[in-house]
Amino acid sequence: MAQAQSRQPVAWHAMPSEAVVRELGSDLDRGLSEREAARRFALHGPNELPETPPPSPLSLFLAQFSSLIIWVLIGASVVSGLLQEWIDAGAILAIVLLNATLGFAQEFKAERSLAALRKLSVATARVVRDGTARSIPAREVVPGDLLLVEAGDHVPADARLIYAAALRTQEAALTGESTPVDKSPTTLSGDDYPLAEQRNLVFMGTVVVAGKGRAVVVATGLNSELGRIATMLQAAEPEVTPLQHRLEQLGHLLLYLSLGVVAVVFGLGLWRGEPLVGMFLTSVSLAVAAIPEGLPAIVTIALALGVTRMVARHALIRRLPAVETLGSTTVICTDKTGTLTKNEMTVTRLFIDGRTFEVTGEGYTPEGEIRPLTPALSLAERGKGEGEVVRALLTAAVFCNGAILRCVDGAWRVFGDPTEGALLVAAAKLGLWKESLEAEAPVIGEIPFDPERKMMTVLRNTPGGIAAFTKGAPDVLIERCAQVLTVDGVVKPLDESAKRRILEVNWTFAHEALRVLGVARRRLDDKPVDLQAADIEQSLELLGLVAMKDPLRPEAKLAVRQCREAGIRTVMITGDHKETAIAIAKDLGLVNGQGEALAGHELDALSDRDLAERVEQVAVYARVSAEHKLRIVKAWKARGAVVAMTGDGINDAPAMKAADIGVAMGITGTDVTKEASDMVVTDDNFASIAAAVEEGRAIYDNIRKSVHYLLSCNLSEVLLMLLATLSGLPLPLLPVQILWINLVTDGFPALALAADPKEPDIMIRPPRDPKERFLSRRRLLLLFGQGTLIAVSTILIFASCLYAMDQSLERARTVTFTAMVLAQLFHAFNCRSDRRSIFSIGVLSNRHLVWATGASAALQILIIALPAAREVFKVSPFDPKHWMLAIGVGLVPLLTMELWKTMPVFTRRGTNG
After folding, report:
1. Contact call for residues 672 and 117 (beta carbons, < 8 A)
2. Omega of the bond leading into 760 within 30 degrees of 0 (cis)
3. Does residue 698 contact residue 755 with C-beta atoms inside 8 Å?
4. Other beta carbons within 10 Å of 553
5. What DSSP string runs through 376-409?
6. Which of 607, 698, 791, 864 has its CA 20 to 30 A from that of 110?
């Protein structure tokens, strides 16, 4: 059902909650009446995202016939059938159907992005209607509903908060913010707050991780932020990959070549007075010779083989042509959290009374040690005093903590806030486990975290008496502290000078992309009657600072460098703050100085044209929205780049859809992201993307080798037939023989070339120019030369058999047929490299090719040896001397090219391209 609700640009975050309630005609206490809710449901429609029906299997199958070269083959099959050449017609049609079946099987699970978005909608929601709280289906939520949320709930619609108690939501999938967001009903001044900073709203599809709240619904369905992204995703058109574009160009070339050759030969024959029907059959034979019937299937199978190899390298391909697109990639726009980093907050530094301690180990596994940075001695070596104050700091961090650290199925996991989880892991490295500590110091009260106070406090009954443990933002916490614990275990007054020094350390940590928390405690004489923050959170004793970060994946820096060496730009796009993003980018080697980063609000100030002109100078984007990501991708594409976009959240999906290739994260990625993607990285690792680029380049190289081989072989057949026609010779090959060569004896080696091992320099070459032709002028010249060499060799043997050896036409055709087959089989080894000798590469280094050429040769022997096959292919057996002659002619192209590769022009510069 279409929604009548219009998407008005209302700045709900800038309106007081009372004004929002009035605007939406609701009530702060009673919510909507059931009658009014029913009226609004009829007006606005259900609170859900309309699902686009998935493509039918029939439409998917028919889509496999969209290529021009496929229609050229179908045309050839029809013509062959009209001429009653049923074997030719059936063979060509079988190849077309095989190609379509392979493509259909790979793409059967078509993209269902909006269906995946719908899965994010929750089954039920809790609202207040007629003054009573009740649970209703989420699809029945309407604008103006009074919504109740608490920890564990999925938010069913966009809503403006009117009350929040320690409310925190996880919005990474929507905004890219890597840590839970603190929510508050406080009105924000100004209309230009980015989505990630609209702290007084909760959004459809996000999750409440702590606290509870009450909010009035401001947008549902397609009018929500999630719905707006769904609309962008629906509008994004799938991109034609570089390989598809180049093969389409090749299809046009082959079509024009076939028609041109047919027209020339047919016209010359008629001019010479040849019979009309005979010349038509000859022209059809040439057309069959010109078209590489096995090409579509070879390309599809080559891509499928690449898919299999990529799975072993943690890359799952959803659309076959995307395999090759990776090899064309010039820019990778990547998310930070979980892709470049481990998405496991880790404590790396402690600061106590002028002394900095290093915490080793990364992630949630509680392995590592804590030691002073200078000199680098362990706590045990430094003495008992320092060890005790570090234990005091981390014990307080555990006491003021709502997360849980557990080992599940052999892996350590944090349940709760990742920041609090990092504190538990650091404490566990000293043997301080939450369960044991809490057993000795039970909770007697708590003052939850408040975004305005920026602190939280837990009261516990410790063996030493009642104590309050507080953690929060250092700049706020320090002002509440009157004392400080020294490294000697002595408590002394905290003067203004000491506060300044601590804040300087806090500033230094923050500019190293570290998240910093201050930890303090206070001894109390008795349990307070009333837990008031103003009374308890004062005269605190500062225990120290704890600094943490989401560590880089150890292989990410190497992968970024490999991409740079391969001529690929890596651009980091994140929802984090600009300073944090720049610091991480420096660690990765993405930026060398300032001025190479843009925040979301700076991006808004640029027009699309200005962004396209500046995009090549920017390596980092921070605090960005889904629209920003889409604009960045489009700006790069406007510069002619082939763009890969990675992501795991809902807000990444439109940009991924618009990119040349969308790469989703398999572990943390939402269903939306995966369904909008062309490839899924199963380990969420940037290094796997770099590995996939390497495989993509290898696949493109191998496809081009196969195409080069097929076209040079087909050209040799065309030239052979054309030279014979122009010379007045009989046809050296019959259509069925040409078809046998194209489909069988050429097909197996071409497929084996598609599995050729990677070239050693594959990741130190620059990316291919997206505008370059599939076959460059240099390669076309080489291809033409090789085809001419094979054609001239075989027409000489044909003429020799007919006239010098006085053989029958059938015998001469058989020898020529065999010589052509052997020449093309030997030529397959030429095509492994256009600049390196097959002997330096290693004849056996591609065993698939050895077996393929051996099998093709064996099949050729069989059709000459078996009487039934001889009848079909119109061949006859011949003497060993003719076999020696055919083998000798077959070796000519291989030996000539081996000699040619020794020339300086080839040893200095290959003909790649």
Report:
1. yes
2. no
3. no
4. 22
5. ---HHHH-HHHHHHHHHHHHHHHHS---EEEEET
6. 698
Packed helices 276-290 and 242-271: angle between N→C axes, nearest 10 degrees: 160
Rounded to the nearest 10°, the torsion over CA 846, 851, 853, 855 is -170
Residues 452-466 have a mean pLDDT of: 89
Cα(470)–Cα(459) distance, rounded to whole angstroms?
9
351-376 per-residue burial string, b: 16 or more CB within 10 A, e: under 16: bbbebbbebebbbbebebebbbeeee
Between 855 and 309, the higher pLDDT residue: 855
AA identity, residue 592: N
Distance between CA atoms of 493 and 398, rounded to whole angstroms? 25
> pLDDT: is 667 or 841 the higher one?
841
Do the Cβ atoms of 728 and 268 come closer than 8 Å? Answer: no
> For residue 710, with 0-12 CB atoms within 10 Å meaning exposed, 13-18 middle and 19 or more buried, which class applies?
buried
Across 262-270, average pLDDT: 75
Mean pLDDT of 332-343: 81
In angstroms, the CA 398 to CA 421 distance is: 9
Helices (H), 728-846: 735-740, 747-753, 777-799, 809-830, 838-841
- Contact status, residue 389 vs residue 487, Cβ threshold 8 Å: yes
**Who wins on pLDDT, 233 or 609?**
609
Average pLDDT of the residues in 536-565: 89
Here the contacts of 599-608 (C-beta below 8 Å, separation 24 or greater) are: 599/623, 599/624, 600/194, 600/196, 600/624, 600/625, 600/628, 601/192, 601/194, 603/628, 603/631, 603/632, 604/192, 604/628, 608/634, 608/635, 608/638
Q: What is the pLDDT of residue 206?
A: 83
Confidence of residue 120 (pLDDT cuts 50, 70, 90): very low
Outline where 383-524 has alpha helix (H): 384-399, 418-428, 434-440, 474-477, 496-510
- Strand 569-573 relative to strand 331-335: parallel, antiparallel, unpaired? parallel
Would you state the structure tokens that stand for residue 792, as one six-digit string?
A: 């001239």
671 labelled catalytic: no
Say how many residues make up the chain. Answer: 913
Instruction: Please measure the distance between the N-terminal and C-terminal CA atoms of the chain and give it in whole angstroms.
Output: 52
Query: What's the angle, vertex CA 544, arms to CA 539 and CA 546, rounded to 5?
Result: 130
Alpha-helix residue ranges (DSSP H) falling in 523-625: 533-536, 556-565, 578-588, 600-604, 608-614
Percent of the chain residues topping a pLDDT of 90: 24
Count of other CB atoms within 10 angstroms of residue 4: 10
Closest CA to 77 of 52, 57, 99, 58: 99
φ/ψ of residue 128, rounded to 5: -105, 120
Please choose, from the candidates 391, 404, 392, 540, the residue with its C-alpha nearest in 3D space to the C-alpha of residue 468.
540
Segment 57-96, tens digit of pLDDT? 677 677 666 666 567 667 767 766 776 667 666 766 775 6
**Coarse DSSP helix, strand, coil percentages of the chain, rounded to the nearest 5 percent:** 50, 15, 30
Mean pLDDT along residues 248-269? 72
DSSP string covering 342-369: -S--EEEEEEETTEEEEE---SSS----
Contact 336, 572 (CB under 8 A): yes
Q: Of 158, 182, 335, 746, which residue is the catalytic one?
A: 335
Condensed to tens digits (0 to 9), the pLDDT of residues 408-447 reads: 888 898 887 888 999 999 999 999 999 999 999 999 988 8
What letter represents residue 306's amino acid? G
The per-residue b/e assignment along 661-676, b for 16 or more CB within 10 angstroms, e otherwise, is bbbbbbebbbbbbbbb
Mean per-residue pLDDT of the chain: 81
Which residue from 35, 13, 333, 327 is spatially nearest to 201, judged by alpha carbons? 13
- Take residue 515 and report the two structure tokens written for it: 């998240």
* Closest to 163 (Cα-Cα) out of 184, 145, 133: 184
Query: Which tens digit of pLDDT belongs to each residue from 551-597?
Result: 888 788 888 888 888 888 999 988 777 887 888 888 888 876 544 78
